[in-house]
Amino acid sequence: MADALTTLDIQDGIAVISNNRPEKHNAANDEMDRQLFDALDEIHDRKDVRIVLWRGEGKSFSSGRDVSEIGVRSEDITNFEFVERGHRRTQAFFTCPAPIVVAMKGWVIGGSFERALLADMRIAGESTKMMLPEIKHGVIPDSGGTARLFQMAGHGVVADLAMTGRVMEVEEAYRHGVVSRVVPDAELDDAAMALCHEIAANPPFAVKMFRRTLSRLGNPDVQRTMQEESMGMTAIYETEDYAEMKAARAEGREPKYEGR
């Protein structure tokens, strides 16, 4: 349909979720997020899905949160409830009954990068550039990606990315195991689909059991970290520094932070 910001197509045991806001480099807003998690919910109820491919239309997988909506909400709920609600839906990446492969290209930023890190594997086009710019917006990464990236690349790399907001090029991501394969952009969709077909052709119960073993190794630390992120984000939203950041941005001036 015309207003679908996230599409779902299921054929031959392969569920393809596509970010569908190419004119915005697939920047995520509330409706796009809702449609993403609705798609994952539908996959949870399907017995025929053996593998999930998450990809993006246009030039980028996702440029992260639509900056015009950062900190904006239409409901009367607390900051803690707001963050925790997002975390509840994010659990779908852990409970999905089939492995999730992400095909990344162009910009992969912020929360969208973090969610891609929660998937089982990532294949990247040569144009892929990853960022965790949350601190530049006065907040912190809060979708579990910090813990997953820590598992892959170690303390120093995560600190470097999150505290500076710098770009991680695809070659560096490959060195650290953030992505397992790099292909030319023009070949990305075909290569990702070929990978999905290869996995889908394997005995499904064996795939489930291996994925279960892998999740027992990695997911508990990620989920515990998300609990810390909930508290951190709740505290940040109440600080004078966060209010100053928003005021300075609205007034087109440099912020003056006091550390409180």
Question: Summarize this, please?
Answer:
The protein is α/β, with parallel strands linked by helices and 260 residues long.
Tell me about this structure:
- This protein has 260 residues and is α/β, with parallel strands linked by helices.
- It has a domain at 6-185: 2-enoyl-CoA Hydratase, Chain A, domain 1, CATH 3.90.226.10.
- It is 48% helix and 15% strand.
- The protein has helices at residues 30-44, 79-90, 92-95, 110-118, 145-153, 155-164, 170-175, 188-200, 204-237, 240-251, and strands at 6-11, 14-19, 51-56, 100-104, 107-109, 121-125, 129-131, 167-169, 181-183.
- The strands form two sheets. Strands 1-2-3-4-6-9 form a six-stranded mixed β-sheet, sandwiched between helices. Strands 5-7-8 form a three-stranded mixed β-sheet.
- Strand 2, helix 1 and strand 3 form a beta-alpha-beta unit.
- It is globular, with a radius of gyration of 18 Å.
- The termini are far apart.
- 36% of the residues are buried.
Strand content: 15-25%
Helix content: 40-55%
Radius of gyration: 18 Å
Strand arrangement, largest sheet?
A: 1-2-3-4-6-9
Largest sheet: 6 strands, mixed
What is the straight-line distance between the termini? Answer: 47 Å
Give the uncertain stretches in residue-range form. none
CATH class descriptor name of the domain at 6-185: Alpha Beta
Q: What is the CATH topology classification name of the domain at 6-185?
A: 2-enoyl-CoA Hydratase, Chain A, domain 1
The CATH architecture of the domain at 6-185 comes to Alpha-Beta Complex
List how many beta strands DSSP finds: 9
SSE order, one letter for each helix or strand? EEHEHHEEHEEHHEHEHHH
Q: What is the overall pLDDT average?
A: 94
Work out the helix count.
Answer: 10
Q: At the fourth CATH level, what is the homologous superfamily of the domain at 6-185?
A: 2-enoyl-CoA Hydratase, Chain A, domain 1
Q: Name the shape in a single word.
A: globular
Q: Decide which structural class fits the backbone.
A: alpha/beta
